[in-house]
Specification:
With about 425 residues, the protein is α/β, with parallel strands linked by helices. The protein has 14 helices and 10 strands. The longest helix is centred in the C-terminal third of the chain and has 25 residues, at about 330-355. The mean pLDDT is about 95.
Length: about 425
Amino acid sequence: MISSYVNSFSLSKYIESVKHDPENILLQIDRSCDLIEQNNPCLQAFLPEDNRRERLKKEAKQLLEKFPDVGNWSPLFGVLIGVKDIFRVEGFTTRAGSKLPENLFVGKEAVSVAKLKQAGSLVLGKTVTTEFAYFEPGPTRNPVNIAHTPGGSSSGSAAAVAAGFCPLSLGTQTIGSIIRPAAFCGIFGFKPSFGRISTEGVIPFSGSADHIGFFTQNIDGAESVASVLFDKWETNNNKLLPVIGIPVGRYLDQASEDVRNVFDEEIKKIQKKGLVVKQINLFENITEINKTHREMCAAEMAMEHKYWFAEYENLYRPHTKQLILDGKKVTKVDLELAKNGRFLLREKLSETMHRHGIDIWVSPSTITDAPFGLESTGSPIMNLPWTFAGMPAITVPAGVSKNNMPLGLQFTARFNDDEKLLCFVRNVMQ
């Protein structure tokens, strides 16, 4: 049963409604603020803000006065966005889900946020994040079923879109923090190739693995977002159906039986559309990849927090504290080997795709459905190797678990083939 907290809010339909009548921006502000006032006390996707409605209406009127000609609008003009609270946003406090003094996080607005604002988007508010984008859960609940986690670390951003508070939100992924919560909440999540969206102005976790991405309720409109956030985006309208690879073996075996059963049914649906699907034994060393990625992230987290941790160790929560302590034990040699391992894995995957004629990989987005309770945000290990290799990934809703919770299909393309990935997935899902 779908919860009453799930509400439709399509980005593409929002864009069209605003173009049709600019006054719809003000109507949508009222709609979003009404929903937040009614449902956010339970869901806790957005951080509290006094006078949110008044601020947004003032900003919207200023925007309309500055750009009265619809012909001069960008595709994201007037779009309401949620922003994960590790992004710096002018006029908003950044806390990164932590108890550390907020003055530590003051700095220039995130490049990604600035680009969206320059395109005419309006910041609806800051969304809840786990502590420093790691595993310590925040208070956010899953809009599909509030007894379950929405996933993390981009918990609030995923829940905000699923609940219909906004049609677009920003998140980050260092292990699985976009793909996992998007799948758990039954929405679309896009993690681009490493480095294609600037991380400047975002509180770092691991500089070698941090990715900026976003959430929407469907794939429509995603290209409009990418064209703004990417420095260079080349539209791809190829209608060809891709050859799909399934990474079988130890990697796929990490998923639960329930997830694998649903995954098999979804693959059958894809095959009935006439797509070629090849099973390839991949990631035979997945345990080593998982360990290497964690060590790299831990070491870089320890480096990023060196001075803060020395002064405020008592303010860190257990999971984050342990990661930093573990990171201090990683040698410089091992860190460099791990960082180099990213490129070796990326190269190996590219060579495998070329050898077998594979355009994109498809795998389960998660190993289980959204766990019951808020004590855990779930496991990101189905996302980890793709993140480690820096390859672009998309999750789309696909089936439900035995608990009637959403599951997703994770599609992955070659490094920097983000445009092709969006195009291929759109063709597959039609």
